[in-house]
């Protein structure tokens, strides 16, 4: 019986320690003066991402909403959906003349690492998107930084991406956000901290 307890106790202690880890405080941060911030997200549902959508929003240094977007993009894996969301967001930033200094933020750590550290990728579709961003869009920006944030700090973009699943055609909102994200945008502007349980993906 003692032998059995010795085997069980270390496992129990590990579980107890995991459950009692302190959550991580996550907060959306305003960009600096003269900067705009693009938060983006992709959403995949169904087997093999058979229903995918994208979304995101752009805010200024006062956290004021400038524009948002959402659309359904058909079949795509999570990386491609995130990348499509980023590409579309950057295209809109350029189209609307918001391209002086742009801070891009998303909750897809792998994609952020690819962009930030210029990592090589095997997927031809991913490489095509990244090549377009690097060669066509980024030269249009005066300054550009990219960072990762946990989903708890990317709630507004996540909501836009979820909304994309229900749209028949691409949708853009200017100056005034849709009511579905009003509360989140307001909470972000007020600096609300959302606690994240350790061990969660993204």
UniProtKB/TrEMBL annotation:
- SUPFAM superfamilies in the record, alphabetically? Ribonuclease H-like
* Classification via Pfam families: RVT_3
Q: Which residues form the RNase H type-1 domain?
A: 39-163
Molecular function as annotated in GO: nucleic acid binding; RNA-DNA hybrid ribonuclease activity
The record ties this protein, via CDD domains, to: RNase_H_like
Known PANTHER family for this protein? OS05G0353850 PROTEIN, REVERSE TRANSCRIPTASE-LIKE PROTEIN
Name of the protein in question = Putative ribonuclease H protein
């Amino acid at each position: 019986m003692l032998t059995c307890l010795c085997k069980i106790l270390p496992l129990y202690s590990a579980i107890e320690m995991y459950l009692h880890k302190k959550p991580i405080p996550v907060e959306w941060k305003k960009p600096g003066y003269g900067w705009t911030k693009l938060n983006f997200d992709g959403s995949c549902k169904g087997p093999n991402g058979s229903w995918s959508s994208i979304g995101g929003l752009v805010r200024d240094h006062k956290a004021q909403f400038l524009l948002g977007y959402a659309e359904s993009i058909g079949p795509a894996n999570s990386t491609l959906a995130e990348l499509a969301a980023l590409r579309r967001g950057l295209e809109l930033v350029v189209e609307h003349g918001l391209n002086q200094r742009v801070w891009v933020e998303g909750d897809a750590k792998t994609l952020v690492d690819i962009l930030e550290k210029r990592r090589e990728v095997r997927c031809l579709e991913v490489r095509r998107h990244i090549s377009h961003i690097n060669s066509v869009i980024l030269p249009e920006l005066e300054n550009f930084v990219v960072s990762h944030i946990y989903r708890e700090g990317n709630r507004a973009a996540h909501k836009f991406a979820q909304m994309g699943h229900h749209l028949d055609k691409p949708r853009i909102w200017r100056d005034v956000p849709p009511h579905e994200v009003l509360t989140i945008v307001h909470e972000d502007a007020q600096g609300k901290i959302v606690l994240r349980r350790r061990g969660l993906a993204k």
